[in-house]
Amino acid sequence: MAAAAERKIGLQFEKIEKRYGSVHALRNLNLAIAPGECVALAGRNGSGKTTLLRVASGLTRPTRGSLSFPGLVSDRPPQIGFVAHATMVYDELSAEENLLFFAKLLGVSDRQARVTELLREVGLTERKDSLVRTFSRGMRQRVAIARALLAEPDLLLFDEPATGLDPEATDWLTEHLRKHRDQGCTILMSLHGQSDMARLATRAVRLEAGTVVADTRSSATLQSIFSFAGG
Amino acid sequence: MMPLLSNATAIFGKEVRTEFRSRELLSSTIVFVLIVVVLFSFTLDTNSNESRRFAPGLLWLAFLFASSLMMQPCFLRERTNDTLSALRSSVSDTFAIFLAKIAANALFLLLTELLMLPVFAVMFNVSFVAQFPGILLTFFVGSLGIATAGTAVAAISTQARMRELLLPVLLLPLLAPILVASTEVTVGLMSPDPFMQWKGIGFLAVFDVVFLTALWLFGEYLLEE
Fold it and tell me: What pLDDT does A231 receive?
């Protein structure tokens, strides 16, 4: 992670619009995230949080507008780690096989060492040979997080990462995110309602109908954005 | 070029590993082709020369129907955990995903064809042993064409609502040229005086190249959300 902290990048959405047929998922959205910021996205279901994260990950192309990564020094694409609702790992492969497979696709050097390190970090060393389909939701989420961290990403995107997790797994994830935040990694995460994870954020942004309606860095008003979001 | 091939090889390895672990696709396709070949053999007098002339066409028809079953899950099962998004964000060129899927589908189809060939030969009283290299070549270029077109259509239909219906409706007419060319070549190889129709093989090879090029140029748009 140290390498990621050294090459911090930000995220800038300019006049982003995303339409799915007649549905406007994002409307003229402007948002600039500075390198090293930990931003929590709040908003009701359908407010555009997931679409915004998918646009940021490059998986969804915006209908209009542009996305840039301030601080990106070289001409290489930014390394983005994305943890979505779905785990994005294969049930028919073991935890280690999944990580080795994605490490190869991402061109990670010394794959086995990196995968072993990440399995230890997410606490799955003992179950590394078990098929993911035999895992609990919390364990799958750990594999998903390890996959997102494989290439030492410049930017971490989390879409409601605590969904389906028990309190113990949520605590583990909160601590894990705190570690990455403290190391200076830029984080954008969507959250549902107030939680310990919301307390990690250095900034909170509330979306409504695909646009930013509130944006604060003040710790006094930060929590109110989540309570106002209505969960 | 190297990252493309390296990524395609990794995805191909994953496809083969997961399939041989579950054997879902191969077993269901083999059973399907077996049923179709047996049913066809019941409807025809397999000892007549006439039926032997039709038999290769029936065999390829069975392969075509089987391919529409086989191609369906290749992108559909990537939706289960949204692994297609993980693949898209991990590869430098999305054509690697297509290359790997095409290679895996062609391999599975070729395996099905080779396993069904002796059964077909017995049921329809035809000999293929002497012409096996020619038949293998025909199966290879034919399967590659079916896999290329099938993988493209599977990518399109995965995003549609009526995907189970859409795939065969789009795929079967698209594969008509392969059916005609492969059947003609196979008829020649299984005739009492066997001969190789190189024109047919050439046509199949051109079909493969055209579809591969189209996927290389436009495949990225098929996987977009």
Answer: 42
CA distance B13 to chain A (A): 9
| Last residue of one domain, picked from the residues A151, A177, A197 | A151
* Nearest chain A alpha carbon to B96: A105
Asked if residue A40 and residue A102 are part of one domain, the reply reads: no
Percent of chain A's residues with pLDDT above 90? 58
- Exposure class string for B124-154: b at 16+ Cβ within 10 A, else e: bebebeebeebbebbbbbbbbbbbbbbbbbb
Question: Residue B12: how many CA atoms within 13 Å on its side-chain side?
Answer: 18
pLDDT at A230: 46
Measure Cα distances from A123 to A89, A116, A172, A173 in Å.
17, 10, 10, 11
Do A127 and A178 have their domain in common? no
User: Which structural domain, as residue segments, surrounds residue A107?
Assistant: 91-151
A63 and A158 assigned to the same domain: yes
Tell me which H or E stretch contains B94. none
Task: State the first-to-last Cα distance of chain B, in angstroms, to the nearest integer.
Answer: 26
Neighbouring-strand partners of residue A7:
none
- At B86, which helix (H) or strand (E)? helix B83-90
Any chain A CB within 8 A of the CB of B161?
no
Give yes or no for residue A229 having a pLDDT over 60: no
Domain count, chain A: 2
Q: Please report, as a single letter, which amino acid is at residue A88.
A: M
Do residues A121 and A160 share a domain? no
When CB atoms are compared, the residue of B7, B17, B21 closest to A105 is B7
A57 touches chain B (CB under 8 A): yes
pLDDT (average), residues A72-94:
88
* Residue segments in chain B with a per-residue pLDDT below the cut of 70: 1, 48
The C-alpha of B17 sits at a distance from chain A's nearest C-alpha, in angstroms, of 9
CA distance B36 to B39: 5
Note whether residue A85 is domain-resident.
no
Which pLDDT score is estimated for A106? 94
This model of the complex carries an ipTM of 0.87
**Alpha carbons within 13 A on the beta-carbon side of A214:** 20
* Final residue of a structural domain among A151, A178, A203: A151
